[in-house]
């Protein structure tokens, strides 16, 4: 406990991804329905057999090689033996052929006068056989890098998928590498959407003018999907919060402030973190809790107990949440509008909300911050 109190004095910032019929073809409605069901059953059976086909040894070997290749991506290393010499590369900004151009593109992203600090997270990798008989390997990923020439050093982050098309006649080497980005609809290069997306990331200095510095202490998460409307985060590491039930926001905040200011068993001042969480386990009409996130040291040591029984400490594992971000005031009506918009976008993209009652609001700026300088989020649990 004493070590926990001493270590509070120097806290590092917590760590922060696409028919008409002729008259002679008329059939009775009943016959049409039965025939349609039979066709659907036949197609479903064929698809199941197709999906279950065991990949050749060469395909499995290439899958393992791709995993290793992606591990070396931040260093700009490319194993050219994995690719056809005339490999085709395409993403929303580029379209070219040739292994030399491919390798140069990887090195350019990893370390150049334009970009640095490349990070890559592989979320999933799957092998499948297309209906034309060609084996492909699909990956889902998050890619991030820093734009060096810009004074405020913006961090560019993309989530998306890659389809590696393999050439059976050439020992299953990669003949096509096709990237798609989650944040845009038009994937054809050069996509105006893609240009606008990158330009927006470079121009965005919001982390500074919204009082949300990059080194702010916050729970660790990874972004696994990012679109124009929302992002999916994986809070894989547990963290502890100090919770208090409240009616009016200033009252709940004043109670938490007492605990963080030293009203605890060790009488130590605990550094504040972001975000402040407002949790509604039963929806906006039920009970509500205000949750202050404790700094990272609390994840490995026992934090001091509150002096007040109405404040409780909770170690929590959030897992995956869908997040929509917005500026301005955080009123119940606005929060409900944002929640509804998030649910519509998730349903459209086939993402299931695992807890339809619980909603969490996150605030990153002090409660009395001017509205146009505020940063707010709505979180929903997803599978």
Automatic annotation (TrEMBL):
Pfam families assigned: DUF2358, SOUL
SUPFAM superfamilies named in the record: NTF2-like, Probable bacterial effector-binding domain
Family to which the UniProt record says this protein belongs: Belongs to the HEBP family.
Full protein name: Heme-binding-like protein
Organism: Porphyridium purpureum (Red alga)
